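Bug #2210: token dump truncated for 3-oxoacid CoA-transferase subunit B?
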Amino acid sequence: MENNVQELIARRAANELKGPSVVNLGIGIPTLVAKYIDDDLIHFHTENGLLGVTDVEEEDPNLVNAGKLPVGERVGASFFSSAESFGMIRGGHVDVAILGALQVDETGRIANWAIPGRSIIGVGGAMDLLVGAKKVIVTTSHLTKDGKSKLMKACTFPITSTRSVDMVITELAVFSVVNEQLILTELMPGVTIEQVRESTEAYFVEGGVGQ
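Reproduced locally. Full output below:
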């Protein structure tokens, strides 16, 4: 069931990508998005220094992405240093970043890098992507494993950036973030508006969906 949920979310996120564009995929559900892309003008970027990442079916065990998972390289791919890669991000050359999240607050800010009380390796590129990417899409399950809403009134984990994301996609619904407000724009197949209301702690505008 968990894999089906992740695939559903990744497939829906893939529909948001249109070439020509440079797209960075975060760790977790975002890495699945490449499986659903058939557009040669979409170029996947990883912050450890590769532009032209292919999906996992063409992986090279000698190449990894920022999450240390094997990836492949497409024809015409380019390699560069991590410093140059972050220069691309900070310079506004990444069109779309798709990130996972531990929590999302009702203004669209996210927490995705630290859980209090647990050791961490570091924030990675998430802070830079939130600042530098032109559009940020979050892909996450709607609920935690113990059934609590990940879309909260306020994040209880350390936030990743003061920037709000542009879109949140879960297995229940799709939300746009406009003027720091969550707006429900779409229900996932088979989901009712009542399910979304019951599963969401954060305030959101229903925007006519399910009416």
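Output looks complete on our side. The chain has one domain: 2-199. Marking as cannot-reproduce; reopen if the truncation happens again.
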